User: Which sequence fits this backbone?
């Protein structure tokens, strides 16, 4: 009897959950379905299926978004930023964890405290300084991402170092390795799980960032969000094209999520709870 | 590694340069120039607190602070209720558990700018259609008034971030020893009693973490604001972050915008430090 009641309870929870899930993804459904419609089709109703699916919207949006170019810019900027954040933050986390002096503690504290400063509080002088140095370009942007991203990353690496025994360093040094070799061949591979977390947290943020690139890059090397903003401004009142553009812009993220959902959810969970 | 060893400093040089040039120097540089008539390149005069006195008399800035505070409070409550609700749902022994986690978390991976555009379509066209079909006037004219703009931003943010808060609650829920729940079941505790006396107290720390996390997230929102309402109608749904960006890069009033940015920093820092204080206090009690 009791078992039966419990099973029925679970079933109703399951149904409730699935309904909620459907509501949750309905914005994406509405976006995709209407991206396949003509302008007139959208005007006569947005809830149903298209009377006859059209693909021209996607072709036009793809061309106007200069999608391959903006995708390339996004990949380039995100890729390089992540690479240097991981390399330099892990080195710093290692050095700070292996030096137990007061000075090392103070440096670590400064990096953590810098997380208190919101982006908008430094953006005006930042743009001014980089402008005067003629560094408002992709290279400058990647360097800025190192500056904004390193604090949390160092914090996570520093925490992970407590699980890496000091005797490993000593053994490597006795075998004649220098500090960098010790770090690169012995320590860094052991930090791989936290490197995955650091990479995921930074990719989500940098890939989607709009405000900073909008202040640094010009339209010719725009990333996807930046290009999407210009594109959307051109097509107000032309939802069929705007929605096709949005669908294309989201696609790389959905593909990435499909292949790495477990790592992404675990990474975010680890980054948030620590 | 010792303080005097070269390798210690070599390992730290890149990030010290990064943080220094990108965050620390601009921060103090901006703090200094907020007391001048700086135009972004040069300053001609030191004007003391004039910018700070002016900004508190500017109704647009003060309004944007109140709008942001109101938005943050409602979003924080909503996000935590939804986040905990979703977490309780997907940690039950149901078949679609991992599928649902994937679905609820998905909006979080997509940028606020793009999501704001999608919801602009929903609030304007889809809601308009629903109003036409059902005849309910409440669905008409969304984003064209301050009130609907406000709730539009709340709905967008709640939908985008509830999955993230869910993940935090899941981490705490899954740490609750199964034996405790089993033992309570055997002793005849109802599911509400189990929630009230076991789950809730053990998940309470997650509540502090998420509350402050969502509070500072809500305060710093910019992309969603830009793409959903663009501050309209008549700048009435403009939040602090957007106000600062506009003062700086549309009005070109750099020193004045920087003074606003300093006030913004103080607000966000007070929120974060309160969290640190509470966390420390809790750790001592435990």
Assistant:
């Amino acid at each position: 009897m009791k078992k039966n009641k419990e099973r029925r309870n679970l079933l109703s929870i399951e149904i409730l959950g699935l309904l909620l899930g459907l509501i949750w993804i309905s914005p994406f459904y509405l976006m995709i379905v209407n991206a396949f419609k003509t302008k007139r089709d959208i005007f006569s109703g947005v809830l149903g299926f298209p009377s006859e699916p059209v693909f021209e919207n996607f072709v036009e949006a793809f061309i106007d978004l200069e999608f391959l170019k903006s995708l390339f810019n996004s990949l380039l900027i995100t890729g390089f930023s992540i690479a240097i954040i991981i390399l330099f933050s892990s080195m710093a986390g290692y050095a700070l964890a292996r030096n137990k002096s007061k000075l090392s503690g103070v440096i670590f504290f400064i990096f953590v405290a810098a997380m208190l400063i919101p982006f908008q509080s430094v953006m005006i002088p930042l743009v001014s300084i980089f402008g005067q140095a003629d560094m408002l370009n992709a290279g400058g942007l990647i360097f800025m991402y190192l500056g904004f991203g390193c604090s949390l990353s160092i914090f996570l690496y520093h925490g992970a170092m407590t699980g890496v025994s000091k005797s490993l360093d000593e053994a490597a040094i006795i075998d004649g390795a220098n500090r960098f070799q010790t770090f690169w061949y012995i320590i860094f591979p052991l930090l791989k799980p936290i490197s995955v977390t650091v990479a995921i947290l930074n990719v989500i943020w940098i890939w989607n960032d709009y405000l900073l690139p909008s202040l640094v890059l010009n339209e010719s090397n725009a990333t996807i969000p930046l290009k999407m903003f210009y594109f959307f401004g051109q097509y107000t009142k032309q939802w069929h094209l705007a929605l096709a553009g949005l669908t294309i812009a989201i696609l790389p993220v959905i593909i990435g999520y499909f292949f790495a959902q477990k790592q992404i959810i675990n990474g975010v969970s680890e980054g948030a709870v620590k | 590694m010792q303080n005097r060893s070269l390798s210690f400093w070599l390992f730290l040089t890149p990030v010290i340069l990064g943080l220094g040039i990108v965050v620390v120097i601009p921060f103090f540089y901006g703090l200094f120039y907020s007391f001048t008539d700086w135009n972004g390149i040069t300053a001609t005069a030191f004007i003391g607190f004039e910018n700070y006195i002016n900004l508190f008399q500017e109704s647009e800035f003060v309004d944007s602070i109140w709008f942001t505070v109101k938005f943050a409070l409602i979003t924080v409550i909503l996000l935590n209720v939804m986040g905990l609700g979703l977490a309780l749902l997907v940690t039950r022994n149901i078949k679609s558990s991992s599928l649902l986690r994937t679905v609820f978390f998905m909006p979080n991976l997509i940028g606020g700018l793009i999501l704001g555009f999608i919801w602009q379509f929903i609030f304007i066209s889809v809601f308009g259609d629903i109003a036409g079909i059902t005849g309910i006037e409440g669905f008409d004219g969304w984003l064209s008034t301050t009130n609907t703009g406000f709730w539009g931003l709340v709905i967008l943010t709640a939908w985008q971030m509830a999955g993230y808060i869910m993940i935090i609650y899941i981490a705490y829920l899954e740490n609750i020893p199964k034996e405790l729940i089993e033992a309570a079941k055997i002793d005849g505790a109802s599911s509400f009693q189990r929630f009230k006396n076991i789950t809730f107290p053990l998940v309470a720390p997650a509540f502090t973490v998420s509350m402050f996390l969502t509070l500072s997230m809500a305060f710093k929102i910019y992309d969603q604001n830009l793409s959903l309402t663009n501050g309209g109608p008549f700048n009435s749904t403009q939040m602090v972050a957007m106000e600062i960006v506009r003062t700086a890069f549309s009005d070109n009033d750099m020193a004045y915008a920087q003074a606003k940015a300093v006030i913004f920093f103080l607000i966000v820092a007070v929120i974060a430090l309160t969290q640190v204080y509470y966390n420390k206090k809790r750790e001592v009690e435990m």
